[in-house]
Amino acid sequence: MVIPWTKVWAVVITGLVVVFLALVLLIVFVQIFGKIFSGIANKEKKGSKPDVIPVPQVTVPENVTRSVPEPEISGDDDEVIAVISAAVAMMAARDGKKYAVRSINRTENRRRSAGSVWGAAGQRENTLPF
Amino acid sequence: MSEVIRIFLETLADLGATSGFANLEWTNIVMILISFVFMYLAIAKKFEPLLLLPISFGMLLTNLPLTAMYTPELFADPTNIDYDKILHEGGLLDLLYMGVKLQLFPPLIFLGIGTMTDFAPLISNPKSFLLGAAAQAGIFLTFIGAACLGFSESEAASIAIIGGADGPTAIFVSSRLLGGGATISTGTIALAAYTYMALVPIIQPPIMKALTTKKERAVVMETLRPVGKTEKIIFPIAVTVIIALLVPSAAPLVGMLMLGNLLKESGVCDRLVKTAQNELMNIVTIFLGVSVGATTTADKIITAEFAKVIILGVIAFSIGTASGVLFGKIMYKVTGGKVNPLIGSAGVSAVPMAARVSQKVGASENPTNFLLMHAMGPNVAGVIGSAVAAGVLLSIVK
What we know:
The complex is a heterodimer of chains A (130) and B (398). Chain A has helices at residues 5-47, 77-95, 117-127. By secondary structure, chain A is an all-alpha fold. In chain B, α2 (26-43) runs antiparallel to α3 (49-62). Chain B has helices at residues 2-18, 26-43, 49-62, 83-89, 92-101, 105-116, 120-124, 128-134, 137-148, 153-160, 167-177, 186-198, 200-211, 214-217, 229-246, 251-266, 270-294, 298-301, 304-334, 353-365, 372-396. At the A-B interface, α1 and α3 of A face α7, α8, α9, α10 and α15 of B.
């Protein structure tokens, strides 16, 4: 062996210790400034008034019949029905046909954390460059 | 008339005697064939083609006899290179190789990489730095293997840095340490590094699966916190100051990486960002590739040492992957199952390939698990880690 063992161990130990030390220093720094910035962000959040989001008025045309069975959707979901009906009405106005919303069923989430198809599409779009 | 024919025939004979064909040796033919193999891998198999294709073409040029494009003798003594002589007598590739030998090209490539790197996943989850550090064990443990196989200090360090899975860093270290007396060249190291970087999707998954349980691989990690613009601007400045003060020899790589990132994050230097990540980086890549490829002369490749480098290279990659995953397992235990150990393998740099492998292996266990952004943290930490490791090697090994 050309290199003495003492030198080999010196390189290995020094190398590992210095690399870990350098990156641990960076962890400490990033955590500290991360906390400072989170604190500033929280203060700004508390101080500012909540934004008022204007709700668009949706009107459902009379020629769209609605028949939604009670047991499937109830309570606050009336708003959801109104929105879906309005979307269908828009589509009907565009292609000149009449549609009837006869039932709206909630589907079970088959996958654990995927959420909606839109959520998955959004995640895919954001991670595509990598 | 007979005199004219005699002169004509003599000229033909002279031309024949001084042509490349007359001076072609079997080693040249073997090297030319090897360059064809690497060209095939770059073009048909898309093995890191942006660098492997110029490297393999440089290999072809340098092994064509009498072209005098690269003169190894001019760079024989790494501590005393006569650049004046190179400027007067050197060939095209000698002149380009000065950019490698003077440590110019790798940091400029890092400048371009910096403009394309998003450190937000790392800032959001700074513990990722530990995984980036753990994966550098591949470098230092391979140093032991290279020492056992009889390599000198500078050769062992140049081989070990392949474990960093970072081409410019490997070229940065080996070009500084290796001279004409070495049994291997910078080109040898670059060939091994870029070939294995292209093989990351094949080398890593079996190691990752062997070292983790099904339960660990299925861990869904918490969403990363959003990172503000100010944090992104402060980060590259702070990293440069901390690393350059701690390991000054790592400053050229880390400094340029962080300058590129600062240009990008500042949002006020769009023109410079575009130049750094496109024109400048592309020009430097061509110069770096073809000149590094030129160092792969027959006496550096058709040797037992080259075979040893190839073996040690894959060992370095494997140890780096394994140590990253094993450290990930420790973090899994310590955090009570909040960290997926698969992101540890991304600590070997090879951006973004290694992070993609983490994503792919994780998704094979749970298709809805998006590990990519979590793996990008250790991945970019690995780039910083391997630059620091390079600085350490250059400080200790002289």
